[in-house]
Amino acid sequence: MSQEMPFLVVGLGNPGLRYQRTRHNIGFMVLDELADALGISFKKESRFSGEAAKGRYKDGEIYMLKPMTYMNASGEAIERVMQYYKWNIAQLLVISDDVELPFGTMRLRLSGSHGGHNGLKSITSHLKSDGYKRLKMGVRGANGRGQMDLADYVLATFALDEETKLKDFIQKGREAVFRLMHEEPLSVMNEVNQRTSAGSPAEEEKKNEQGTGKSL
Asked: Which of 24, 114, 117, 126 is catalytic?
């Protein structure tokens, strides 16, 4: 990523106190952590149907956006901001939850399918491309979602044992974003993805590529 090109980072989530600490809102949480680290704050941007914050990290400019359109219409806000500033898809990084990844693990992809995630599906539809980077934050608990419906699960808060580790996990997301601003994306991707949890990283990759067949 050229230092002269602003880096557009979009965190996905739903607006309102009701959703603030839910699994689906971890994208918003990472953006809040980034803003805190940079000493900046979010302001309402009605023209983009979102909240935005601008700052600098080292010699690079970062623009952060939280769509306030609700998850299923996230692409509307992103399309507006990219058209307004005439930014291209290479500048875009989207941070989303991923219910197929174990809690505490991340998966960085430089492009690919939406995997059944309604936020990513909306972005791909509005941009007419799936060629944007996305940082997927694993939100699947150790025991899965049990008997909970998928939609109910991602709109639920984290378990108590997960809450104790959530801050560290969000900080890992923040550091991955900072690295992407100044390092080769492939290098960052290789390191981030190697740390995907136990079991079979190849199997996790296959799940993310094919999707679950369900929308969330």
From this structure: 24
